[in-house]
């Protein structure tokens, strides 16, 4: 077998650490150093005594897996033998064929036979392996105290660490006291100074008449007190002003708030800090300790008589913990896990503080942004929910689904008000921007009833609705998959059909205004910004994103005075971009205007559009699993400059920052079906086949 080159273990040994309860745990990071996907497994000569999590798996290019090895206790069936007799082996193989990717995908879904067949398909000469030596961390004198100090404050930490030193200091003091010869001058330290430095005697000062004055009683008032420590000791003399200042200067670095036995030097504190700083498998600090800055307390300063006024209160800095994510400067998405089936639609409210998500699990869920907490669930549909639309002014929410119903809810309370039944599956619903409660929807045909696009008015007093406009087949080219209000005043209605068609209608009369072939084949989704003059579309087969201008401003100054005549749309292609994957959804920045999109010098800048998709769910394991491009990530697009030899278009935003996959952990596992910008364009949301919704910060 070949040596291990496609994976790099960090560290190259199994280093066990002994915890307070006696258990042994080790971490090994496996870094993929190959140009594609790599599979691995870890073996041990004593599988009954050790638990390996995970014992096998696959790593994509540029990523890593952290493997935990835990020794089982006697209660769990482990033997008392030493771990140094155990051997660990890492085996790895490069994933080179589509069949191997499919087997690993089956293994990730819980089918153990897929992993077995994969390793059976690897020739022996292509299998790489490396043995990892075992190391056991030696416990030192302060190990238990340091571990306990991580859960306590700095004061408790110092107290625990210096219990032993206090006993030794007292023992030394007793020894010096018994060996003290007669005739030696002894200076007693007040109780406040004893707390700072226990068991220490001051050196003898110059002779003088201060001793007699101190013996006369009361001569040392205001400077503390002094009394003999031994029966045969000379009377204690009083300290002079310069001696008091010298004592205070020596004691100040050691003074702390409250009693602190033992002398704590700077070297000792550095030793404590180094022991309390814990390192992870990658060698970087996981728990980082900041050395506190001690300061003298008010009681100590007053006891020595250095200052007549109150001393400033000592400021003590607590332990500062830095997580591993902060140390590595990684960006993590906020994952909303409330749906059990694929996501079909997502939308922010106008405040940007609430996100509504629809899924095939018959649920609509409202989430708080950016906390990601579930606010409420709208349960009433008897089939998959395909779309929703919020009227923020009235606080009303519309939802539509595969059960042929459009439901009206009170958004704040999730109370169902009434329902509208249509002939077939309702694929889309959208409120009209106006004072009246009017919405448009599209439904499939069922039996003798044809597919239709309808406009309805709602009466809250009567709690009913009436159909204002109905556009049915054969005027419809086919069943519509999406409807939207467009135009400078949202006076037009457009519908999306098979064959890449987008048809524009007069919302009042139902007459056809324009028929646009937006893509060569099917149009997956359209999106409209607040400026209704623009429309974005994406195609699944041609893998292209296109930005269309529906109506130019009527005058040079950009006013809409000439649009009041009620003319029809005149779509023109402004910008386009061809992606590397099938596209299912598109989103456009809400604040995007016609003038920004038409600017000839537009180059770079912030993200203006999002596109997403990926291979079908049945092909997930075959395409994109080991490539350097993540198929299931939103693609941020921005404008690029117009050049004389090329038309204006769109280009992907740079990978640095929030979109760099090397700085992120996790992602969708399945094609994207829904995308949305927050109103301020600082966040984007994506919904996928995996049933998760991810919130990501935009830069």
Annotation keywords:
3 domains; MSP_dom; 15% helix; 699 residues; Immunoglobulin-like; 41 strands; RNA binding; Methylamine Dehydrogenase, Chain H; single chain; alpha+beta
Protein described:
Helices cover 15% and strands 33% of the residues. It has 699 residues and is an alpha+beta fold. It folds into three domains: 2-136, Immunoglobulin-like (Sandwich), CATH 2.60.40; 143-205 and 222-304, no CATH class; 334-554 and 567-697, Methylamine Dehydrogenase, Chain H (7 Propeller), CATH 2.130.10. Strands 2, 3, 4, 6, 8 and 11 form a six-stranded mixed sheet that branches. Strands 1-10-9-5-7 form a five-stranded mixed sheet, with no helix packed on it. Strands 14-41-40-39 form a four-stranded antiparallel sheet, with no helix packed on it. Helix 3 (143-149) runs antiparallel to helix 4 (154-161). The longest helix has 16 residues, at 163-178. The radius of gyration is 37 Å and the shape is elongated. It starts with a strand and ends with a strand. The model is unreliable at 139-154, 180-190, 192-236, 254-261, 300-328, 555-565 and 623-629 (pLDDT under 50). Residues 206-223 have a biased composition (Gly residues).
Could you provide a short overview of the structure?
GO terms for molecular function: RNA binding. 15% of the residues lie in helices and 33% in strands.
Unreliable spans are 139-154, 180-190, 192-236, 254-261, 300-328, 555-565, 623-629
Q: Helical content, roughly?
A: 10-25%
Question: Average pLDDT across residues?
Answer: 75
Number of helices: 12
CATH superfamily of the largest domain: YVTN repeat-like/Quinoprotein amine dehydrogenase
Strand content: 25-35%
Number of strands: 41
CATH class of the largest domain: Mainly Beta
How many discrete structural domains? 3
Radius of gyration: 37 Å
Q: What is the end-to-end distance?
A: 47 Å
CATH architecture of the largest domain: 7 Propeller
Structural class designation: alpha+beta
> Mind summarizing the main beta sheet?
6 strands, mixed
Shape: elongated
* CATH level 3 topology of the largest domain: Methylamine Dehydrogenase, Chain H
Organism: Effrenium voratum
Protein name: Serine-threonine kinase receptor-associated protein
InterPro entries: Ig-like_fold (IPR013783), MSP_dom (IPR000535), PapD-like_sf (IPR008962), WD40/YVTN_repeat-like_dom_sf (IPR015943), WD40_repeat_dom_sf (IPR036322), WD40_rpt (IPR001680)
Keywords: Repeat, WD repeat
């Amino acid at each position: 077998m070949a040596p291990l080159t496609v994976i790099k273990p960090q560290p190259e040994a199994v280093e066990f650490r002994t915890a307070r309860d006696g258990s042994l745990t080790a971490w090994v990071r496996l870094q993929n150093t190959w140009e594609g996907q790599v599979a691995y497994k870890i073996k041990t000569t004593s599988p009954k005594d050790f638990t390996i999590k995970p014992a096998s798996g696959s790593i994509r290019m540029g990523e890593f897996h952290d493997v935990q090895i835990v020794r089982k206790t006697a209660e769990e069936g482990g033997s008392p033998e030493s771990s140094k007799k155990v051997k660990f082996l890492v085996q790895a193989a490069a994933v080179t064929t589509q069949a191997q990717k499919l087997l690993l995908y089956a293994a990730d879904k819980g089918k153990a036979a897929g992993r077995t067949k994969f390793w059976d398909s690897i020739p022996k000469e292509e299998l790489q392996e490396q043995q990892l030596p075992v190391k056991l961390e030696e416990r030192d004198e302060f190990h238990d105290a340091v571990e306990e100090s991580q859960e306590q404050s700095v004061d408790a930490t110092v107290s625990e660490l210096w219990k032993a030193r206090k006993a030794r200091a007292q023992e030394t003091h007793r020894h010096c006291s018994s060996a003290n010869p007669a005739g030696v001058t002894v200076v007693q330290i007040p109780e406040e100074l004893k707390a700072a430095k226990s068991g220490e005697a001051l050196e003898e000062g110059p002779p003088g008449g201060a001793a007699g004055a101190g013996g006369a009683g009361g001569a040392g008032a205001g400077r503390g007190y002094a009394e003999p420590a031994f029966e045969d000791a000379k009377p204690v003399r009083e300290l002079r002003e310069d001696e008091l200042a010298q004592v205070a200067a020596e004691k100040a670095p050691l003074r702390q708030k409250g009693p602190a036995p033992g002398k704590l030097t700077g070297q000792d504190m550095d030793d404590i800090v180094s022991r309390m700083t814990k390192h992870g498998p990658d060698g970087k600090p996981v728990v980082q300790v900041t050395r506190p800055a001690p300061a003298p307390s008010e009681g100590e300063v007053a006891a020595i008589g250095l200052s007549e006024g109150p001393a400033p209160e000592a400021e003590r800095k607590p332990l500062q913990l830095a997580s591993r994510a902060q140390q590595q400067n990684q960006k993590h998405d906020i994952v909303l896990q409330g749906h059990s089936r694929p996501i079909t639609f997502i939308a922010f409210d106008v405040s940007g503080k609430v996100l509504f998500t629809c899924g095939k699990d018959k649920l609509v869920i409202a989430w708080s942004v950016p906390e990601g907490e579930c606010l409420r669930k709208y349960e009433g549909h008897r089939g998959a929910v395909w779309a929703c639309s919020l009227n923020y002014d009235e606080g009303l929410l519309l939802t539509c689904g595969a059960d042929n119903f459009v439901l009206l809810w009170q958004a704040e309370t999730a109370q169902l008000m009434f329902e509208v039944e249509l002939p077939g599956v309702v694929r889309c619903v959208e409120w009209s921007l106006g004072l009246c409660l009017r919405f448009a929807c599209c439904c499939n045909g069922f039996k003798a009833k044809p597919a239709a696009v309808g406009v309805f008015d709602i009466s809250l007093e009567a709690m009913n609705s009436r159909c204002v406009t109905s556009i049915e087949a054969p005027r419809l080219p086919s069943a519509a998959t999406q409807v939207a209000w467009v135009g400078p005043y949202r006076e037009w209605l457009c519908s999306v059909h098979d064959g890449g068609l987008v048809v524009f209608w007069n919302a009042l009369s139902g007459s056809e205004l324009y028929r646009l072939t937006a893509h060569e084949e099917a149009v997956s989704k359209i999106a409209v910004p607040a400026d209704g003059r623009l429309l974005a579309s994406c195609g699944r087969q041609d893998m292209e994103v296109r930005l269309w201008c529906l109506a130019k401003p009527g005058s040079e100054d950009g006013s809409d005075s000439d649009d009041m005549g009620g003319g029809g749309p005149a779509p023109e292609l402004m910008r386009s971009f061809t992606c590397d994957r099938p596209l299912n959804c598109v989103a456009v920045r809400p604040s995007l205007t016609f003038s920004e999109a038409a600017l000839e010098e537009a180059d770079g800048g912030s993200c203006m559009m999002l596109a997403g998709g990926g291979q079908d769910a049945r092909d997930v394991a075959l395409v994109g699993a080991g490539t350097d491009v993540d198929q299931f990530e939103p693609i941020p697009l921005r404008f690029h400059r117009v050049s004389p030899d090329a038309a204006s278009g769109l280009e992907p935003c740079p990978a640095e920052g929030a979109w760099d996959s090397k700085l992120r952990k996790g992602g969708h596992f399945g094609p994207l079906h829904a995308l949305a910008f927050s109103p301020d364009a600082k966040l984007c949301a994506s919904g996928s086949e995996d049933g998760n919704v991810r919130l990501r910060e935009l830069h």
